[in-house]
Input
Amino acid sequence: MKKQYFLAIAMFMLLTVFAACSSDDNLDNGKGKVDVASKFEFPVTFADYNSDVQVGNTRAAANSSDTLKHEFVNMGNGIVADVTLQRDKENLSGNSDKSASTRALTSDSYTMLAYQGGTLKGELKGFISGGSFIPNAGDPESMSLAPGNYDFVLYSTSYFTRSGNNLTLTNANGYAILGRTNYTVTATPQKQKVSFAMKHTAARVRVKFNTYVKVQLSNFSSVGFSAANPAEVPSSAVYDAATGTWSTSGTGGTFGFAGSSAWTESGSVTYSYTSPSYSYIFPGSNITNLKATFSNVTIYTENLNGKSLTFALNPVLASVANGSYLISITFHYNFLYLMTDGTTGLFSETTFGGGTKTPIAVVASQSKRLAAALNNASSFAYFSNSSYGTTHNSSQIPEPGWYQGFNQTSFDADGADGYKFTWEAAGSADGTTIKANEQTKYPAFYTAGHYVPTLPAGKFLTGSIVGKKWFLPSAGEIAKLYTGVRTGAGLNYEPQSMGGGMYSTTFYEDHILQYNPAAPLGMLRMAFWQVGGESPNDILTSSTIGNSYFTMSLLDLRKDNGGGPIRPFIHY
Output
């Protein structure tokens, strides 16, 4: 037993010696320090923009696109700008341009600093290769660290000016990157890994304009962005490597989106125009108080030359390092609408334009107090079950020929009144029939007369609109919509301003729903779409056209023996 006891003690002592020798092998000359250059590995990854952002008290996912701020700005010329500031979700993981940018970043030289308790303990210079930071071979600088807890900082050397612990940036760009990590150095194991997630030190911003009508790309070449208050955009930034904090100095930092031809267009119904590049700004820049200046830009027939758009989104949001932002500006027109309470108001007064009112129709004529429903009552309905003609009306306009143009006077000549033909016995040929009550005999009139607008939850018709009846519009009333949609500025889009006619007397040539490069079309559809409505078809069912034809076309007075979409109208 004594022999076994002494053998066990001997084995224990031998293992202790071996362990000490193993530990000493990892230490620097037995001085109790670890040689970082030879004993450590430094894996490096390049983080996406917005990969680590705080939204409220939660960490946002890398591919989030959170709306941070939102404001409507009335530009005072009939145009309302809907401005949003969002987290930009483009160019994140999997995007084709990431590999190219990564190659550019890895070609730089790098410096690694080690801090313990805010005190610099060493530095190494090197490069990135194969996804790791590699210290320069033969560099006279070395780093030997005693076991303990350290903050390691790795930064791209070319873009920072270092003075002691301060790393200064005087040029905001997408290549100045920095990583910081905390690691506890131990005597073992032989190879330790200190991993870095390299992040962009500057924030970036891009701009997207959204319109309902096609705009020439070259128009945006002259759009300039600047800080409404230059003092809120610094011209330099300093990173304190000892504490891991940023500070800024200077004023007058700029936003630039150069390159006219590089603006990209997308969309075929609505259109978006995106800036050709990002503007890079220092952390701490106020990106909620900006000014856009326009020159040589025409939108919705309005020349914005000399106009400016200033938006101050509250509360103030300062940019953060590695943050990517999108300023999205959607241009609306201040059309006039009929509301649920029977009043009329501009787009800016609706819930879609920053106001409180709920629209139910687009005002087609203020003098006639006439408005068109936001949606069709039906995509198809016959005029009558027995005859497609208007002989069941008390009066009618002459039947047109193919492609025969009619001006507004022609449509008004018979005193056509859709309400009369829909809801009054006097509007029927027999003097007794109310066509709106005859679902089987007169489905188009019945469908229009029994239209009920779809309202948001908790919203109801009130005031003077209660009890008002919808009706199947006459040809003249449809023409009022196509050529006479009024804006809040009192403008009246007559045929010539919307593309002209086939002849001087024709009320319309090319239907308003299409874009014509020679003329700013699409205004009518915008009036409906921007408040969640349905754009009118190029053909609508009329209550008055012809002896045997009744559908009204924007292109011509369509000879159509079939039915068509039913767009109810109302007198307010």
About this structure: The two ends are 112 Å apart (CA to CA). The longest helix spans residues 2-26. Residues 5 and 210 are 87 Å apart (CA to CA).
